Amino acid sequence: MLAGLFFFKNSHLFYNIRSRCSTGWQMHALSRRAAMLIRLQTEITGLQEMKTLYAADEDFTSFWEQCIFGKSSSDYSLRHGFLFKANCLCIPKSSWCQFLIKESHCGSLAAHVGRDRTLTQLQARFYWPHLNRDVSQFVERCPVCQTYKGTSQNTGLCMPLPTPESIWEDLSLDFILGLPRTRTGADSIMVVVDRFSKMDHFFPCKKTFDAVHIAKHLFKEKVSLHGVPRSLTSDRDVKFISHFWRELWKRLHTELNLSSAYHPQTDGQIEVVNRTLGNMLRCFVQDHPKKWEEMLSQDEFAFNSMPNRSTGHCPFNIVYTKMPNHLVDVAVLPKCRSTAVAHAAKQFKNIVDRVHAQLTESNLKYKQQADSHRRFKKFYPGDLVMLRVRREHFPTGTYTKHNPR
Ligand SMILES: [Zn+2]
Predict the structure, then answer these.
(1) For the chain, which terminal residue's Cβ has fewer other Cβ atoms within 10 angstroms, N or C?
(2) What is the mean pLDDT of residues 160-164?
(3) Dihedral (CA of 193, 307, 269, 289) sign
(4) Average pLDDT for residues 130-140, to the nearest whole number?
(5) pLDDT: which is higher, 30 or 77
């Protein structure tokens, strides 16, 4: 259809195509190729009537009159009785507007392209004052797009967690799953991050661990060393929404933050840790992927010795006010009394203050950056919303890649 109108702008040909495959017998009589040609055509009738609408159209009447009475106005001109703005056909207020948008977005030659591309196609050919707004509304409400396309932009802004005040009080908990099974049967890593110092602890564990296993691990490896945390952030894994898990932390007065992929309550830290740890492990184990468990403590040391992007300090430095001895320190440097020890308390306070300020700033930056890919949308009780159902929510065997999203 658009091709048809394109012709029409440049020639005397007015199309009156009315051969949409409406009748069954026609379909049978035609070859598949012919059927396709017909499918690609569009019924355009009543084009001549459009001319009669200009005179009474609130947007175009003055330009129309100017052209009729030969007062050539800025951009407007008459061709074959139709009003043009530059090279675009002016569309008076009528069902034509919706028809043209529909044809460009979901017509026979269209493929439900997004708002911008639909708009570009129309703007090259037609003009009416609220073209932009009309296209946005149409595409936003297109039921096919809503059902079959994943939205590229997440709804709901990032909700940054409050900046922690001190060391080992506010923790994030996550798992790296799907690793090669080691001799001890471990196939996952539990990652515990102190949100203040960014110090990480990695524990080998099993994918099948339930909330009780994880709690035992946490108490043995974490609480025994650093005390009971004030808050614990994790994703919404079934383990973390179980009654046992909630009840346990409630009794310890630890606040649980459950973050969701669609409404992340996070500072992005744990994702960075997981990615970096994955890369480090690959480098360490190289051709022996099942040996990752043996390398984990080495990884942890390396991790906590590196300056962190958000704090600007090494986690070791924040927690212990000094870096632990490295192999090179022990082997190469002579043992000498450090003057820093005398000022440890003062130094510690300085570091903690600096880290806190740095964290506040970097959390703000993270939120700004994350929100640039997201949009704020307020929903009210009773609103209808489309939910994207992920693969794991489909009954077994019913999911295919081409399912509605
Ligand atoms: Zn669509």
Answers:
(1) C
(2) 78
(3) negative
(4) 92
(5) 77
Please state the separation of Cα 324 from the chain's center in Å: 39
Distance 159 CA to ligand 1 centre (A): 31
Residue 74 lies in a domain: yes
Exposed, middle or buried: residue 317 (CB in 10 Å: 0-12, 13-18, 19+)?
Answer: buried
* Residue 226: its H or E element: helix 224-226
* Separation CA 54–CA 62 (nearest Å): 9
Number of structural domains (the chain) is 2
* Enclosing domain of residue 190: 170-374
CATH number at residue 200: 3.30.420.10
pLDDT at 255 over 50: yes
Question: Is residue 93 domain-shared with residue 190, that is, in the same domain?
Answer: no
Percent of the chain clearing pLDDT 90 (strictly above): 9
139 and 231 share a domain? Answer: no
Task: Decide which of 128, 153, 178 is a domain's last residue.
Answer: 153
110 Cα to the center of ligand 1, angstroms: 9
What confidence score (pLDDT) does residue 153 get?
56
d(C-alpha 138, C-alpha 318), whole Å:
54
Give the strand order in the sheet containing 88-90. 76-79, 82-85, 88-90, 126-127
Q: Examine the domain organization and report whether 304 and 346 are in the same domain.
A: yes
Q: Cα(330) to centroid of ligand 1, in Å?
A: 66
Average pLDDT over residues 347-354: 75
